[in-house]
Amino acid sequence: MKVKEIMKALEAKHPGEKEYLQAVEEVLVSIEKVYNEHPEFEKAKIIERLVEPDRIFTFRVTWVNDKGEVCTNLGYRVQYNAALGAYKGGLRFHPAVNVSMLKFLGFEQIFKNSLTNLPLGGGKGGADFDPTGKSDAEIMRFCQAFMYELWRNIGPDQDSPAGDVGVGGREIGYLYGAYKKLAREHSTGALTGKSYGWGGSLIRPEATGFGAMYYVERMVKEKKETMKDKKIALSGFGNVAWGAATKAVEMGAKVIAISGPDGVCEIKDGITKEMIDYMLEMRASNRNKVEDMATKFPKAAKFTAGKKSWTVKCDIAMPCAFQNELSEEDADMLIKNGVKFVAEVSNMGCQPGAIAAFQKAKLPFAPGKAVNAGGVATSGLEICQNAGHINWTAEEVDVKLHKIMNDIYDMCVEYGKNGKTIDYVKGANIAGFMRVAKAMLAQGII
Ligand code: 2IT
Questions:
Q1: Per-residue pLDDT tens digits for 114-146
Q2: pTM of the prediction?
Q3: 53-185 and 206-361 agree in CATH topology
Q4: Which of 82, 121, 122, 359 has the CB geometry, 3.0–4.6 Å to 110, for a possible disulfide?
Q5: How confident is the model over 273-297, as a mean pLDDT?
Q6: Which homologous superfamily is 206-361 in?
Q7: Using an 8 Å Cβ cutoff, are 94 and 128 in contact?
Q8: pLDDT band for position 80 (cuts 50, 70, 90)
Q9: Shortest-distance Cα residue to atom 3 of ligand 1
Q10: 192 lines ligand 1 (CB under 6 A)
Q11: Residues 431, 239: Cα–Cα separation, whole Å
Q12: Domain definitions of the chain by residue range
C-alpha cells in the first residue's frame, strides 16, 4: 500500500469530503508500515475494502413544527464495516451533518469498536436537523419521522444506533418508542443509550466521560504523576463533558474551563457538583449557550464571549465537543501555557496541525478513538444485558468499563511504544486495525 496513491484516488472519487479524507489519511499513515509487512492483507485488498462503507442509506425526514409548518431534513445511516459484529455507532443531529461527516465518524467507529474487544462493527448516522431552539414536542416529532425510515435497517443483530452530538437520553427515548411501534420488537438492543428501567444500562450516560478519565489517569501515571489538583480544561458542556467533569472531580482534579459555541466559562476554583448537575439543565434547555453557567453561578464562573477553553492555562486539555475544534494555533497557545497532557474525547477533535504540534513538543497526546471508546463499549454492555434480559448494577458495569479502558490503554502502549515515548495515535490505529483486518481475511472476499 502507498498512502499517497490511495489518498489521490479517494480524493478523485470523493471530492470535497474533507473530514472523511482527513480521518482515512490519519489511519493509513499510522498503519502503512505494519500493513506492508502483511502481503496477505494487500492480496485481499483490505484497505480498498475498508475505506468504502458497506452501504449508505439516505432518506428524507419530513415533520411538522409547532407553528404547523412542514419541514424537511435529510437523514442518513452509514453501515461501514461488519467484520467484527453488527454495525454500531451513534446518531448525530446537527445542521452541518452531511455524508462526509458521517463517513469520517463511521470510519473512526470501526477502529474504536475494535479496540473495545467487543463484537461490534462500525456505523454512524444522523440528520442535518438543528435541535437548537426546538421544543420538546418538535424534537419528538422529528425523532418519530426519522424512525419511519430507519427502523427497517436496524436491529440488535443488524445495526444498533445510539446518541452522539444532539442526540441524548431524551432523543433515544423518542426514537426507541417509535422503533418499537413500527418494528414490534419491544425489548432489544436495537438502540442503546436507553434510560434505566426500560432497557438502558446504568453508567451508559456517564460512560464516555468516565472512560476518558480512566484513560487519562493512565497517561498521567505513565509520567509518574497523579490526578490530584490537576487543572483540566474541557470544551463543550454536553453529555461527554458532564461525565468527564464528574469523574475528574471524583479523582481530585479541578475542571477549570467548559465552553460552548458562544464562548468559554472559566471556573477558577474548579467546577462543583452543583455546577455539573446544572450542565444537564443547560443541555435540556436546547439553548446551546455556556453563558448560562455564568448567569447561574456568577461568583464561580466567568464567561468570555468568542473564546475557546484552550485560552485557559491548564495541565490537561480535553476537547469534548466537535471535530477539528482544536487548531494548530490553539495547540501553540496550550503548549505556551504549559499543558502537560492532551486527550481527545470528541471524535477527531484536533486538527492535524495541532496533533503535529503536540507531538513535536513531546507531549503525550491520545486520540479520540481510544479515549472516548468507553461510550460505545458500555453500549455493547447494554446490548449484552438486553440479550440476556438482565440488569447489571452500576458497580458491575463500571468495573467492566474500567477494565476495557485499561485494556485499550495497554494495547495503545503495546503498538505505539517507540523507545521511551508512546505514540498513542499509532498505537490506537494499529491495534484497532489489526483485529478488523484479521477478521476480514478470515471471512473471505465479501
Ligand atoms: O462516537 C461514539 O462512539 C458514540 N457516539 C457512541 C456510539 C454508541 O453506539 O454508543
A1: 999 999 999 999 999 999 999 999 999 999 999
A2: 0.98
A3: yes
A4: 122
A5: 96
A6: NAD(P)-binding Rossmann-like Domain (3.40.50.720)
A7: yes
A8: very high
A9: 376
A10: yes
A11: 27
A12: 53-185, 206-361
